[in-house]
């Protein structure tokens, strides 16, 4: 099983400069298990994606197709083989 994680420019330096990272989680993949694998492969991403309790940070949005995972089952959202996750940090300004 392979899952693609697409990272925004601001997070690429923490993943060896890569725009896309392939993750091979366990057979019953969830967003949380993909993030755990991703964070093991690229430890510098951990603080930027999840907090100390493993909860998705408030300013991080993750999309599975057109759906924000917060509108699904959050980090427990199950993923089919070949799924692509898009990670987008919130942007504020004024």
TrEMBL record:
Family matches, as InterPro entries: Beta-grasp_dom_sf, Mopterin_synth/thiamin_S_b, SAMP1_3, Sulfur_Carrier/Prot_Modifier, ThiS/MoaD-like
SUPFAM superfamilies: MoaD/ThiS
Protein name: ThiamineS protein
Taxonomic source organism: Kribbella flavida (strain DSM 17836 / JCM 10339 / NBRC 14399)
């Amino acid at each position: 099983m392979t899952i693609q994680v697409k990272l925004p420019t601001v997070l690429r330096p923490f993943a060896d400069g890569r725009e896309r990272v392939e993750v091979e989680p366990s057979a019953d993949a969830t967003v949380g298990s993909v993030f755990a694998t991703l964070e093991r492969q690229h430890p510098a991403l951990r603080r930027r994606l999840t907090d100390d309790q493993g909860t998705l940070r408030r300013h991080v949005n993750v999309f599975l197709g057109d759906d924000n995972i917060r509108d699904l089952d959050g980090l427990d959202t199950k993923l089919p083989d070949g799924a692509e996750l898009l990670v987008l940090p919130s942007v504020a300004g004024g």
